[in-house]
Amino acid sequence: MARRLIPALGAALLAMPVAATVQTYVESNPGTNQIALGYPVPEPVNSVTPVNGFRAYGSLLARHRDLAASPVIREERIGTTTEGRAIWAYVVGDADTRLADGSGSEGVVLFNGGIHAREWASPEVATAVLEALAAGAEDGGFTEFLVDQVEITIVPVLNVDGFIQTQRTPTQVLRTTFSGDPPSWPRDGRMRRKNMRGADAELTTESDALLGVDVNRNSNPFWAQSSQSSHQTGSLVHHGSGPGSEPETRAIQAAAELVDANRLRFFVDIHSFSRVFFGVNTGHARRDAITRSLVDAVRAATTGYGYDPTPAGVGIGSLDEYFAYSYQIPAYTLEIEPGGNGAADYGHNGVTHDGFVLPESEISRVRQELSDALLLGAYRQSGPPVVLASTLQAGTGDMVYAGDWIPAGTSGRSETSTRPDSLPAGEMTLRIVFDRPMRAVDGGSVVQYRGQSIPLLPTVRLVGLDADGQNIEFAVPAGMMRWSAAAESTRYQADTLVVALSAAAGSELSTAAQLDLVVDAQDLSGQRLDANPATVASWSDGAWSGYEDADGRESDQGGASAAFRLVGSGLAEPAPSGGAVSSGGGSGGLGLGALLGLGLFALALRIQRRRRFFSARRSGSRSARSA
What we know:
The structure is a single chain. By secondary structure, the chain is an alpha+beta fold. Helices cover 20% and strands 24% of the residues. The protein has helices at residues 57-67, 121-135, 142-149, 160-168, 247-255, 285-300, 319-327, 360-380, 508-511, 605-626, and strands spanning 20-26, 34-36, 73-80, 86-92, 107-113, 150-155, 172-176, 264-272, 276-280, 306-310, 331-336, 387-394, 399-407, 413-418, 426-434, 440-442, 445-447, 459-465, 471-475, 481-483, 496-503, 514-520, 538-540, 543-545, 561-567. The strands form six sheets. The chain has an eight-stranded mixed β-sheet with strand order 3-4-6-5-8-11-9-10. The chain has a six-stranded antiparallel β-sheet with strand order 14-13-12-15-21-20. Strands 19-18-22-25 form a four-stranded antiparallel β-sheet, with no helix packed on it. It is elongated.
């Protein structure tokens, strides 16, 4: 539940209720001890595959295990509840921990669901993320990139005991007179929030109905330091006997260790309701700024979700605080829709707590929207985009230039190239290869990823010196560029920019003594290039390391990359610093030679070798995981 919706709890709260009444949810026409929601009351559905509703825990578990049969998903037991049930995590990724080009280590992402038992939408969204990764593991684009180059751990249901309790009596709750409760909020049954420590499964057993621990108040560094947690066992926000006292808390902490906690870069705890991302500011300036820019990109993929960060130095004992401070990573509590008005947002009665009982008609849309948004966050935290290779091919089919940034050691790259003394006159095709799908693809067309609004084409310039040592610069018009289709991409759809060039005989372009390729691009999440491919970007102490701007300064924003020298000796020089990325154009373009329309061409030998290498590597990785 949203932090701002939990009332302050004073020291005078009673430890246990003095009376209780069982109440029943109905759609309409309520009688005695009935609560009318204004829509059909959701009940658990026994279906392994997604439905317009909420699946029973047994069905969800069966679905998770079916998905774990995939060679890129493995099931891990991370803990055991107080009632002896296993808590499961699912790790998605290829068999190694290296980036696809072998140059660095993959980042790790952790998504948690079902910490609060009554929030049924949370396990559905967490499961939708797992389902999307399994379905798209070989899609040749966005999802396959995530499987190849990120390790994503998903805990679909953390509070297993409490979740099962809510599904035992899905239409019934217990109304108590516990003075710490808001006056119209029922407890236990369908509305159980906490785990089952000290409680039994009988809804009518009043003596223990309110027992249990709020697992989202059970963590350091702010355990028992807020009025929004309580030492009283009957409180809705009872924080337990000590930090990490609950098996669920220890289990999610263990989930971060399944792969390598040192590579953890992103955490989201999925809740309902409020339609907001609660964030955590730790006082680390760069980390806090990245946390804001990341959530802005992710929120853009949602329908009207807000952002509300907690100031540094305060907290309630929640999981996002634990991960933000322990690992200095972006960490959030995601509160699923509806907003503060609950189901009134959908035209229903607006019962005070009905946001926890999302109408069945809404969940399919919510699953899709939030899985898209969360995976966008994983894509962005995989690291900044980088230009890895480039080729220039003459219209005759002859290779004019070929350059690669290849692995050097465990965390760097070195440049290798073959280049001419000058460019030939006539038509040429330039190919610029990135480490990832730079744009979303739908039905073969390049489109914006959900909710994003970035230039669909980057800025490409050729800068250098003419035969007399004078500066020259050519800006490639947008009409001469396109993203690669599936059949001509190097590894993923839209990972290669294809540029048509033409230089007249005797022009400055064909007689240039030195010519650098300068690319300024944003990936599909809006993140700019790592300007220096030689240093592989990684996450360290709350920010990016090895992520440079065009002036060679380590930053978290990146910039234009002068990755390749097409003509002349030595390495390309840093690109001049500039402003925001534009969609291309520029005055004059390649004015000394007509720029011709685009056309397909035979694949360059070097690019073919890269594709064969990646294909063999991918097959080998999946075989290893299957074994």
